[in-house]
């Protein structure tokens, strides 16, 4: 019983030390948050709509495409701007409060599920080793 329990604790400890990348959770920073103004809003009636926004970084005005919809003309939104900006053309920006892999609740939930899986595996090994195997009764044919 001690070996399966120790193996489960070891697996959970190694998963915790490996970090969030083990559970498929990335904390990629999409860029610095900047205030932007919506210059060309897009309706939300079709998928994949993009809005045009204008923002200023280091005194220079840039145009960007925001993968969103439903904002009004002239509305101020906070966007995440990439660290390297092109000299010309529109920049792809994202809403600052939404980014892929930014949910902090996924790592504890993933680790809790891993703990339950280790516990279940340990209990299965315990039951297999504890309960003796029974031979099936065979009916005799005369």
Spell out the blueprint of helices and strands.
Elements (H helix, E strand, L loop, with lengths): L1 H17 L13 E9 L10 E7 L2 E7 L9 E6 L9 E5 L10 H25 L12
General description of the model:
- This protein has 142 residues and is of the alpha+beta class.
- Helix content is 30%, strand content 24%.
- The chain has two helices and five strands, in the order αβββββα.
- The chain has a five-stranded mixed beta barrel.
- It is elongated, with a radius of gyration of 27 Å.
Biggest sheet features: 5 strands, mixed, barrel
Low-confidence stretches: none
- H/E series: HEEEEEH
β-strand number? 5
Mean pLDDT comes to 78
Overall shape: elongated
In short:
This protein is an alpha+beta fold and 142 residues long. It contains two helices and five strands. The protein has helices spanning 2-18, 106-130, and strands at 32-40, 51-57, 60-66, 76-81, 91-95.
Fill in the keyword field for this structure.
142 residues, alpha+beta, 5-stranded mixed beta barrel, 2 helices, 30% helix
